Design the sequence.
């Protein structure tokens, strides 16, 4: 059973179709870690152009999916309630395998550092327990309508 449904996720983060990539949250320890799931289907709009006849999820969208999972973890912290987490930096991103239609991507996020208006996480995406992508993501947290 999911800890958070797609609707609960959309109540927390501002992302909407076609760029809300988290299907559900499997587990979470607020302020420490989260595991979430993205079910990749052939119906994803990006597969129309990436690549016809050889559908592969773009690496930048794998990073976006990791960032959405991380933002859920950050925004579930009481000090960041009703705020928005903006991706500020991506460090040491590595892509090891392709993600294709039918894959179930497990997103594992671990909080490394949290300060007043920022957070740093270690992010790993896996398919069938094999690492497909890893990165360190830096977030700036601000009011929902802030211009940063």
Sequence:
């Amino acid at each position: 059973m999911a800890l958070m449904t797609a609707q609960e996720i959309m109540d927390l983060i501002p992302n909407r179709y076609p760029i809300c990539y988290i299907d559900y949250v499997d587990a979470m320890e607020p302020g420490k870690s989260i595991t979430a799931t993205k079910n990749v289907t052939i119906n994803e709009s990006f597969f129309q152009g990436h690549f016809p006849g050889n559908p592969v999820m773009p690496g930048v969208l794998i990073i976006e999916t990791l960032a959405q999972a991380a933002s859920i973890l950050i925004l579930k912290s009481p000090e960041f309630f009703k705020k928005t987490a903006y991706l500020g930096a991506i460090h040491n991103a590595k892509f090891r395998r392709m993600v294709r239609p039918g894959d179930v991507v497990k997103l594992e996020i671990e909080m490394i550092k949290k300060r007043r208006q920022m957070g740093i996480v270690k992010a790993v995406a896996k398919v069938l327990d094999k690492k497909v992508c890893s990165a360190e993501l830096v977030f700036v947290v601000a009011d929902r309508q802030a211009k940063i």
